[in-house]
Amino acid sequence: MVHKPTKRLVDILLNGRQKNIPFLAASLFFLPLSITIVFLSYAISILTLGDRRRSRSGLTILVSGGRTCKALVHARQFARAGHRVILCEEADAQYCATRYSNCVDRFYTLPDPLASQQKYTEALLKIVLKERVDIFVPCCGVATTICDGIAKRSLDRHCTVLQFDEDLGRKLDKKDHFMAACQLHGLEIPKTVTFTSAAEVMQYDWANDGKRKYVMKCVGVDDRTRNDMTLFPYAPADKMLAHLNRLNMSKSNPYIMQEFLDGAEYCCQSIAWRGVIRTYSACLSSDVLMNYTHIPPSTKTFEGRISAKMLEFAQHFTKAMELSGPVAFDFLLTSTPPDGAQAKTLVLSSVLYDDSGRRWRLLPIECNPRTHTANTNFLGNRYYEAAYTRLAHDANTRHAWPILPDENTAPARGTYWIGHELFNLCLPFLSTKRTKPLEFINRILTQREAEWDLHDPLPFLMCYHFQWPFLWLTQGLIKGRRWTRMNASTGKVFWLD
After folding, report:
1. Tens digit of pLDDT for each residue in 446-496?
2. Cβ(338)–Cβ(188) under 8 Å?
3. Rounded-to-integer distance, Cα 316 and Cα 476, Å
4. What's the chain look like in SS3?
5. pLDDT digits (tens, 9 = 90+) for 354-399
6. N or C: which terminus of the chain has fewer CB atoms within 10 Å of its end residue's CB?
C-alpha cells in the first residue's frame, strides 16, 4: 500500500514540468563518474593503440537518424571497415550523441520531412551530391519511414538507397497491407479484419465468431492508442461503442481488429538485398523494447526453434517480395488452435513444439520496414558492414548470408542503456519496469552498454549528459511540454502536446 504523502509526491513528479527534474538531477549527479569513465577509456585506447580506423579508401556512406543508437552502430561498423561516414539528423535533434563519434566524418542537419517533404528531399540530395555519397542508409523513425521512400525517387540516380520505395514501404508498414501480403504468399496470420468506423465494429457478426477476443490497432501511427490492449467484444455495448468512438476511426484512419493471442512476443531484424536476408538477429519483444538479447536459430532449445522459425518466415517473405532494404518482423507465440480456412492455402507451417511436446504456432503481427535497434547485437562484428556495402558481390557471396551476431560476445548476450537501467533500479515509479539488483549486476558484467565504446566513448557521455538533458531542459522545463515515455535507444519522446 502506498502512503498518501508518497502518492502525492509521485503524482507531482509524474506531471508537468516537475517530471523532468529527477532526470536532470540524475544526469548531473552521474556526470563526474561519466567523465572519469570517458577519460579512462581514452587513456586505455591510446595505450593499447585502440581500434584504429582503416584508411578512408572505402565508400562514402550517408547515415540518417543521428539521434538513434542504431545509427551509431552503423557509423562505428562502417568507419572501422575503412568507409567515410556522413551523418545527418533533423534540426530538432541536431545535438544528438552520434554526431560526436570519432567514426563520423561530417554532420548535417535536415528539415522536418513531415513539415515539408520537398525541402527534406532537396536537403538530402544536396548532401549526396556535395559529399559524393555511394550508399544512403536511413535510420528513420516510425513516422518518417515513408518520407525516405519518397526521397528515394530523387536520390536513386546518384547513389544506392537502402530503403524501400514509397509504394512498397506503405505495403509493408501498414498493418492491413502486410497481413494481406502474408496471406498472398501462403503465410499464416491471426484473424484480422479492417474497419473504418465504430459502427462497422459494432455490426460485426460476433455471434458466429466463436469465443475469440480481439484488439484494435491503428493501421498507421497513433502513439495515443498503441498501448491500448482492451479486448473486444465486451459488455455493456454502450461502453464498448464509446471506447471505439474515442479511436477516431475513418477511411483515412482505418483500424484492424486482430485476434488476441496468448503467448510471448518476439521480433527479428535483417537487411535484405534482392530477396536475400543478409543479416539476422532475433530477441524477445515488447511495446518499448530496451534490452536486446540475441536468440540464435537452433533446434536444440525451444527458443532456438522459435528463432529458426522466424528466420524461415523472414527468408520466405523476403524472397517472395524480392525485398531490398531494412526489414523487421514482430511475432506472437500462441497455443490457440489454427484457423481451418487458412490451413488449405499455407505454403509454410507456423507450427513448432516445445521440449515437453506441446504444440505452438508462431504468427506474424507486424512488419517494420526500417532499421531496428536490435542491430546493436552486431556491435563489433567485423562482417556486419559487408552486408551493406558488398552489394555488387551478391551472386558470389549468396551462400554466406545471413550473418549472425557472434554468440560469444557481450553484444550478442545482450545490449542495454545504463540510464534506463538505473532508473528502473532506483526510481521504478518513474519507469515502466523494475530492474532487480542481481539482474542489474548481471547486465553490467556480462552484456554491453549500447552507447559506450572503449575506443569511441564520447557518444556515451553526450547521450546521457547532453542529448537527453537538452530535451528535458528546453522542451520539458522551459516550454512545459508533457510526455508519457522516452525511448533511450531511439531518442523518441512520446509527447502529449
Report:
1. 999 999 999 999 999 999 999 999 999 998 888 888 888 888 888 888 887
2. yes
3. 45
4. CCCHHHHHHHHHHCCHHHHHHHHHHHHHHHHHHHHHHHHHHHHHHHHCCCCCCCCCCCCEEEECCCCCHHHHHHHHHHHCCCCEEEEEEEHHHCCCHHHHCCCCCEEEEECCCCCCHHHHHHHHHHHHHHHCCCEEECCCCCCCHHHHHHHHHHHCCCCEECCCCHHHHHHHHCHHHHHHHHHHCCECCCCEEEECCHHHHHCCCHHHCCCCCEEEEECCCCCCCCCCCCCECCCCHHHHHHHHHCCCCCCCCCEEEEECCCCCEEEEEEEEECCEECECEEEECCCCCCCECCCCCCCCCHHHHHHHHHHHHHHHHHHHHCCCEEEEEEEEEECCCCCHHHHCCCCECCEEECCCCCEEEEEEEEEECCCCHHHHHHCCCCCCCHHHHCCCCHHHHHHHCCECCCCCCHHHHCEECHHHHHHHHHCHHHCCCCCCHHHHHHHHHHCEECCCCCCCCHHHHHHHHHHHHHHHHHHHHHCCCCEEEEECCCCEEEECC
5. 999 999 999 999 999 999 999 999 999 989 999 999 886 554 555 5
6. N
| Residue 192 and residue 210 in contact, taking contact as beta carbons nearer than 8 Å | no
Q: Look up residue 476 and give its three cell numbers.
A: 520539458
| pTM, 2 dp | 0.91
Q: What is the mean pLDDT of residues 159-177?
A: 95
Name residue 56's amino acid: R
Cα separation of 126 and 155, whole Å? 10
Retrieve residue 40's grid coordinates: 579512462
